[in-house]
Each structure stands twice: as structure tokens, then as C-alpha cells.
Amino acid sequence: MLLVVADDHNLFREALCHYLRQSLLAPEIIEASSLGEALDRAAATQPDALLLDFVMPGMDGAHGIDVARQRHPDIPVVILSGNMTREQMTEAVRRGAAGVVSKDLTGRALVEALERILSGESVVAPMAWVEPLSPPAEQRGEHGEGWKHFNLTPREIEVVRLLARGMSNKAIAHSLGIADITGRLHLRNAFRKMGAGNRADAVRIAMRSGLFN
């Protein structure tokens, strides 16, 4: 497996690359510090994925995703960030990012998120939300509490919120002090009520409906 990891914060990038190399993924990694450098490296090597910081030289947020997708439409783009708003995360996925991964995730959760992305799943794995200065229109008025019509139980709400933090099923169960099979049952019931086909769907639906307000 070959990854291009681009981030202009050298310390974070070096720490992330070291952890990934020591993980079960054990990828070969090419490092970059700007979007242009990352895209040039990708053109020369055809990596399995591009991991791009959301804010770095040449990136310009969501527009940088457009540039990356135009240059390399067949390479999954994963956005790394510690301070994206919900709107920005949703927009990143709409622009074609295969996933959005918070820098605040634990190393294990980050690797799990990458594994799911590389297997073809769309993943949004934030550790903590950063609110926009002005809530979007759909979060004001009746849509802000749209999640209530799903009739989720308090436990189902808990498991969906932990899911959105990038936790695996096992980690969710451990965090709540319940059996693994019980945690999976709560997630399955929540997915059914929300009309979610998979984990990424559940997170996107929860984001749109205001579950994390």
C-alpha cells in the first residue's frame, strides 16, 4: 500500500506517518507539505490514497478537493483536519472526498477510519465538532431537531454519537460498558430507524438532522 500524506505542520505529519508505518496497514508513505507537491508526487507514483490537510499551502479548503479530484479522479482523497465545521465536512464529502478524518482521533481510531475508506466506504470520523459562527439555515427552526422523528432511544443516540467520533463497534461497547453484541444491536436498530445503509450514512444523516446540536 502506498499513501501520499500532505500536511504543512511537520511535527504532526511526521508523527502521523510514523504511527501509520508501525500500524497493521504498514504502508509505504510519501510525504508532502503542500497540495501542489502532493499532486505532483501522486502523478509520479499513483498511490492508493491521498491524505490532505484541509488548510495548507495550495489547498484553500474545499476548492483544493476539486483540484485533487480533477488531477487524480481515480485516487481516493482523505481530508485531515482538527478544526472543520459540520458544514465544511459535509461539503468535503459532497465535493468527492472519500472521507474526513479528525486529527484529534486516537491513532487506532484513525487507522480504523483509513482501513474503512480504503475498502471503499465513505467515512466521516470527527472527534469533536467546531460550530460555525452562524448556524446554517437547516439547523435553525424545525430542521435543527429533525432527528427526533427517528424516535431513537437514549442508548441509540449514544451509540450513534460515539460512532461519529470514529469509534469501532467494540470501542463503543467498551465505552458504554455493554456487551459487543448489545452495542451492535443498538447500532442496527438506530440505522433502521434512520434509514441508514451503513456507518457513513448514519453519520451524514445525523449531521443533517441536527443530532449533534
Describe this structure in words.
The protein folds into 2 domains: 2-125, Response regulator (Rossmann fold); 137-209, Winged helix-like DNA-binding domain superfamily/Winged helix DNA-binding domain (Arc Repressor Mutant, subunit A). The chain has helices at 10-22, 35-45, 62-71, 86-94, 107-118, 154-164, 169-176, 180-194, 199-209; strands spanning 2-6, 28-32, 49-53, 77-81, 99-102, 123-125. It is built from 9 helices and 6 strands. Helix content is 47%, strand content 13%. The protein is globular, with a radius of gyration of 17 Å. With 213 residues, the chain is an alpha/beta fold. Helix 6 crosses helix 7 (169-176), helix 6 packs across helix 8 and helix 6 (154-164) packs across helix 9. Helix 5 links the parallel strand 5 (99-102) and strand 6 (123-125). Strands 2-1-3-4-5-6 form a 6-stranded parallel β-sheet, with helices on both faces.
Please summarize the sheet with the most strands. 6 strands, parallel
Number of domains: 2
Q: What's the tally of helices?
A: 9
Q: In percent, how helical is the residue content?
A: 40-55%
- Cα radius of gyration in angstroms: 17 Å
Distance between the terminal alpha carbons, to the nearest Å?
38 Å
Give the SSE order as H and E letters: EHEHEHEHEHEHHHH
Q: Record the strand order, biggest sheet.
A: 2-1-3-4-5-6
Shape: globular
Mean pLDDT over all positions: 81
Instruction: Tell me the CATH architecture of the largest domain.
Output: 3-Layer(aba) Sandwich
CATH superfamily of the largest domain: Response regulator
- What is the CATH topology descriptor of the largest domain? Rossmann fold
Could you give the count of β-strands? 6
Unreliable sequence segments: 127-144
Strand content: 5-15%
* Level-1 CATH class name of the largest domain: Alpha Beta
Judged by helices, strands and strand pairing, the structural class is alpha/beta
